[in-house]
Amino acid sequence: VSDLKERVVAAKDAILQCQLFVVVLSAESILTSLVSDQLAFAEDKGKRIVPICLHSNVDGMDKLTSLFQTRLLVFGDDLGFEHGMDNLVECLDENVQQAKASVHQVADYTAKTSTDDIIDALL
Question: What InterPro entries does UniProt report for this protein, alphabetically (predicted)?
Fold first, then answer.
């Protein structure tokens, strides 16, 4: 039991530290409360969730689709692994571009703001 608790704590710590939560789902895992809890925790913390599913038709997927802010990536069935990888690379690239844009916005704001304004905002 302690091993399970340690894994749950480790998973939550990892979710807190990540900016993007990539989760691989199977027909079995999607029905477990552990996966549902981790997905809900990630959503509650405002993490972007990228779901990867091994099959396109999985029981229980409908109850979780509201958590997914992006498309479901399917690696199995008729679509194949290569199609799933192409979609994953595209999705990860979009997230990298969004992160870069956020960094540039902060840098632009900082460059345009005087030190006195920043100090005033902090006080």
Answer: Toll_tir_struct_dom_sf
